[in-house]
Every structure is written in structure tokens, then in C-alpha cells.
Amino acid sequence: MAITWMEGKKSQDWANLVLAVCLFISPWVIGFSAETMPSWNAWIAAVILGALAVAALSVFAEWEEWANLVLGLWMVVSPWVLGFTANASAMWTAVVMGVLIAAVSLWAVWDVHHPQAHA
């Protein structure tokens, strides 16, 4: 059974929702919940990512994917901007999650502009 373009789009939105949940629980799972700055950074970014994913699952808008890309890039640079590079667990969690968020967002934007790739 072939996957239609919209079904593929939904899978990217579900991936963002899973990433949001992972990011939200990461301070406890990875063990940096006692650190205020990286924990709140993860929680706030997770809530924004989750809200955008739920919105995109309801009604798709390309701007949501661009917002997710910005959020992913923020997560990559946030350890240096917010000053928590000394906590390797928090830093690498932010960087890896940011790269994953940005990658899913770029994938979604690519699909918007290259729908023939699914033909």
C-alpha cells in the first residue's frame, strides 16, 4: 500500500510529538532535573514543540515546520547561549534533540516543496 503525501506529513508531525515528549522527560531521565536553566529550557521547548505538532496534526501549515526548525536550532545553540555547557548530559541532550527536531522539520519542509518525490 502506497503512502500518500498527507500520511507522510502526519508521520513527521507524530515524530515531532514523540520528540516533544522525549525532550520534556529528558531532565529526569538523563539526570539534570536539579539544574534550573537546562531543565526549563527543555520543558519550554518541549511544550512549544508539542503544541506545534498537535496543531500540525489538526491543520497543516508550513510556518509550523519553519517554527520547529527555529526551535531545533535554538536547542542546538542553547547550551552556549544559556551557559550550561559544563553539564555534559544537559548539553548533549539539547544538541542531539535540537538536531533531531531540525532534521524532522527540514524533512517536512522538503516534502512541501517536493511532493513529486512521493509519486
Automatic annotation (TrEMBL):
SPW repeat-containing integral membrane domain: residues covered: 12-106
InterPro entries: SPW (IPR005530)
TM region(s), chain numbering: 14-34, 40-59, 66-84, 90-110
One Pfam family per UniProt: SPW
Annotated keywords: Membrane, Transmembrane, Transmembrane helix
Protein name: SPW repeat-containing protein
